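Long-time lurker, first post. I've been practising inverse folding by hand and with some scripts of my own, and I keep getting stuck on stretches where the structure tokens seem ambiguous. Below is the full token string for one chain I'm working on. Before anyone asks, I'm not after the true native sequence, just a reasonable design that respects the backbone. If someone could post their per-position residues I'd love to compare against what I wrote down in my notebook.
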């Protein structure tokens, strides 16, 4: 099971499309991948950035191979599946604009960031996915449209049947925040958890702002770190 691939797509596409579309995930797709200062200099953050960056590049490679840029992935379904695929395509297109077009950028991720991503365990990836799911539920529940977008993300990640069942179970039965926090034993993991959670939500709603504030205090995230996370996942 490769949950890191799913985490990368979720980060790159803003889980369930909840984030503000302004600027898309140009910054989040490069979270720690193209810098060495502040949060970007932390190995775990760089790993998240690389996974999001790779998810985007893998998407572009598949599009070039199929000779199509009109739809995300290879789905030929109709209805909700096609809607989710189309929505995800739009998000990836915005990432392309932020990166200067077809994944062409004057900067490329440091090889050490790829190594950091390789070292990240699936257990850690699952913890961050659970954090994103908990954050997505902060304002109540997931709408049908949001669930369809997540389905599109799983299509994009080429998730296996077991992975789909796992994510479905997590969505239907999100882990309590208190339970998740017991698995965070150091500040670097706390930063990764906060950053992934921040990428999952639109901070313009009162419920989400309250959740992020609570999370920041529970994780002992400094105001400076929170501001940088806001810049990385606007």
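-- Answer (accepted) --
I ran through it position by position. Result:
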């Amino acid at each position: 099971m490769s949950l890191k691939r799913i985490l990368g797509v979720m980060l790159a596409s803003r889980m369930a499309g909840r984030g503000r579309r302004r600027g898309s995930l140009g910054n989040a797709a490069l979270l720690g991948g193209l810098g060495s200062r502040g949060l970007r200099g932390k190995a775990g953050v760089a790993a998240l950035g690389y996974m999001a960056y790779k998810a985007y590049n893998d998407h572009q490679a598949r599009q070039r191979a199929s000779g199509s840029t009109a739809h995300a992935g290879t789905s030929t379904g109709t209805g909700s599946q096609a809607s989710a695929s189309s929505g995800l395509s739009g998000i990836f297109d915005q990432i392309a604009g932020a990166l200067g077009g077809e994944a062409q950028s004057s900067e490329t991720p440091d090889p050490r960031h790829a190594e950091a991503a390789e070292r990240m365990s699936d257990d850690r990836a699952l913890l961050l996915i659970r954090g994103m799911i908990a954050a997505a539920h902060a304002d109540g529940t997931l709408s049908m449209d949001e669930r369809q977008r997540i389905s599109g993300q799983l299509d994009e990640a080429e998730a296996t049947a077991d992975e789909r069942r796992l994510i479905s179970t997590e969505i239907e039965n999100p882990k309590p925040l208190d339970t998740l926090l017991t698995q965070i034993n150091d500040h670097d993991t706390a930063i990764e958890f906060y950053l992934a959670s921040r990428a999952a939500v639109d901070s313009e709603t009162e419920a989400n702002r309250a959740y992020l504030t609570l999370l920041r205090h529970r994780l002992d995230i400094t105001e400076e770190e929170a501001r940088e996370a806001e810049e990385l996942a606007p």
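A couple of notes from the structure itself: Residues 18-36, 69-106 have pLDDT under 50 and may be disordered. The two ends are 30 Å apart (CA to CA). Happy to go over any region you disagree with.
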